[in-house]
Amino acid sequence: MVIRVNSPRIATLLALSLSISACWSSSAPLFEASQSVTPLPSGEYLYHSGAGESQSDRVALWKIPGGGYVYYNKAEDNALPLLTYEFDDGWYLLQIGPTEETLLLIARTTPTRIEVFDPDCDEEIGAISGVGRTESRYSGYNCSFNTLEAAVAAAQFVQARIESGVPIEPHGWFEPTPIERFGDANP
Description:
DUF2846 domain-containing protein, 187 residues, single chain, 8-stranded antiparallel barrel, alpha+beta
């Protein structure tokens, strides 16, 4: 049996990325649950974060009727909605929130893992129509997206860079098979 790595795992990785400062965000959700893909089963997954010496966390995903997931990180005791939008085969825009702002990440599937990227907001991405670029009080710049189209255009720009060999390290990665499976969330 071949197991295909899919977007929900990436979504879980995105949710784990809440512990970092957001570089990409929007003031409101950019897509609805009905537009979200949910190919992963509900279950507990292992997420590895950090470069070099990796830290692992157990996270849970529950499918929600109508689309999307509830993401839960036991270590942070944090449950949030997670939506996953497939913008190209094996590439996903992850949307976590709403919180004070909706956070956005990019994920891609490989045969052995799901990688989650927290992309920079450089001048080229900031020049895309529908993208606002502001200096971060911590370091670098943040991107704020007004539309799904703008976020997808930026995600495709990052995808093209990665596929052309530009070294962009993932924020973390997800093992594609759940440690434990359990039932979907009920409303």
